[in-house]
Amino acid sequence: MNRLGRYLSSMVLAIAVLAMPVTLIAQSTMPPAPYAYTQLDDPQQEAVARELMETLRCLQCQSQSIADSDAPVAGDMRHQVRVRIAAGEHPDEVRAYLISRYGDYISYDPQISTTTWPLFAVPVVLLLLAGLVMWRRLGRKGEAAT
Amino acid sequence: MIAEIGLAALWLAAALAALQLLAGFAGARAADGKAELAALARPAATLQAVLCAVAFLALLYVFAITDLSVRLVAVNSHSMKPFIFKLSGAWGNHEGSMLLWVTVMAMAGGLIALIERRLPERTMMATLCAQAFVGLGFYAFLLLSSNPFERLAEVPAEGNGLNPLLQDIGLAFHPPTLYIGYVGLSVAFSFAVAALLTRNVTPEFARVMRPWVLGAWIFLTIGITAGSYWAYYELGWGGWWFWDPVENASLMPWLAATALLHSVSVLAARDALRTWTIMLGVIAFSMSMLGTFLVRSGILTSVHAFAVDPERGSFILALLALYIGGALVIFALRAHTISEGERFNLVSREGALVVNNIGLSAILGIVLLGTLYPLLTEAFDVRVSVGPPYFNPVSAIFFLPMMVVLMVGPLLRWRRDEFSRIIKPVALVAAIVITVLIRVAIVNDISILSMLGLAFAAGLAVASFAPLFKRALHRTPLAIWGMCIAHFGIAVALFGMAADTAFQQERLVATSVGDVVEVGPWTGRLDSVKAVAGPNWTAMQANMLLSYNGGPELEAHPQSRNFWTPQMETSEVALLTRWNGQLYVAVGNQAEDGRWQLRLWWKPFVTFIWYGGLLIALGGGLALVGRVVGDLRRRRQAAEGFDDEDLDDASETVPTA
Q1: Residues of the domain holding A137
Q2: Between B343, B385, B397, which is nearest A108 by CB?
Q3: pTM of the prediction?
Q4: N or C end of chain A, less CB within 10 A?
Q5: Quick one: A70 and A131 in the same domain?
Q6: DSSP, res B77
């Protein structure tokens, strides 16, 4: 993690904290990650954050999203996600930030890239194959009538 | 002493498997299936089942008395553990679960040897031979690299204990049912290979194979349903399916078995889809073995962990290559000798079942890809994660068309049919689907997949019983009832999944005693928090009083448990179940200001997911009973000299699904 990145992220955090309503600041007396177990006040933002959290991997557990984990790391990440969403960031930006910080591994939503293209090519091939098999087996009408 | 008896029984069973292999081989080579040696094949299989049962009981015994001189007990058990978890802990580890696998496999082999008399003797001998060949590999794996009865030179004072997440009644049921399903498919595999080798792919063969496939499939269904509910209440966050590789490992054999079940019915009723049925028989058990490899080799934690300690993993990988590769080679060599079978039209029962089979196979391919791909890239040091955002939409591409066919298919006639004949019920169902879709789209702001899920669930719920329309219900064969109920179960489960995904309400709060919490229609308050203790844990228990829409107050007691051997914190959730959903309450840690972290979810109709799973299994059970009873009756009548043509046809007009 470079220094600039850390500086920027702390700036974002600071802005987010300033932007928070007063009631939330009272809750931030619960260190270190108040939003690990607390929802955002705005239900719409919370829903967005929740949807994003379900697609982010908990790095400490085996095969669980950060929305389903008791691990401290997951709690930290939930906090980061909520703070950033509350600060008005788009989920894609948050995801991009987390990927830049933790690597592609963090995201359960693989994007098409040089390493992941088969994940998307194979279903297309399967679809074509399924069509072909059906056309071959079933396309020849009237044969059963004989 | 008991452990040594268990080990000796296992070695003897392995030796009998070798004998069964030779005897079966001799039988399969003889023209009529009768050779001197062949007479030993059946007894060898039956005795193997007994010996494996002895070995398994021996393992249960050493766990029950916590015999710490046995390494497996010392590593995985603890004298203070509740008795039931001592027993279920016997298979909550690598060696024990492999012994369970081998035992179930021997039981299945013994059962076919004992009761299956309908097949031509040559095919039967080839089946027993194949079963023994597969069995031998797993005996070798167990005895050479995973001996469950290994003794320790120095007996430790206390055992290491069992992972607390596994100390649950779920462990008593989930692995055995799943393994019966996994390994039951080995019978289908052996049948398929034997039919290929002896060129005997016929409707009679399909009728023999069907109950075994059906039985394995029922247990797989129950096992997956139980596993999903277990994960749901044990992990403490309300998730019921994670597309986790271990879950996928159980889903893949189920998908293959479901496809096989339908295609074997087509073969039995119409003598079509011959090669396809054989292929699926091979694939289904291959998926079971692949799942075992994934779960048991350690490859899931990390490809590199696997590379560091590759003994067990390579062993199973070699077995996989041998059995799957071998079966595919036989398939490639023999497939051309089997003609394609009867032909049919696109608009026909067979046509619909082909679409179903292709859809299931394609979903299987996607799950396989999504599960293996991250392992593949990890080997090249690129780590990617494939999760719900990938699996949900991509599998839906095939799942949704299948739903449409599922609603229409059972109404179609065999061979060829006209859409105009069934236009009325189809129009009715289409109207239901579209009405629900429009209503949900207007009223609720939910994802497109949930919307489609709700609409298709409604349509399928009606469509699944349409085949009973205008039938004399008391004369309807049990197998048809089974099909309707299983299809209805899919509608119920789909409704549960869509409703929970769309309408779940979440509340995460830090509360003091006396505070009021609201989630969805529920209002509750934290009454008190107190410390409680169990046999091997202590816990903080939150006592909550909750009421639904201002109704009477109900108690809920979620706990945050601390186990001491091994050290681990778990969440023991409280569930308040209503007909229309479940309230899920979990308590977390105490914050520094003294407030308690509470997590509450109101999950509308979530229970329908598992009711649906049970209905699917029930449908399978009815079909199985119907088939077996019908078969027994036919055989009795045949023995008494009746001409049973009519009866035979009547029970074959509709496939079991």
Answers
A1: 116-146
A2: B385
A3: 0.90
A4: C
A5: no
A6: -
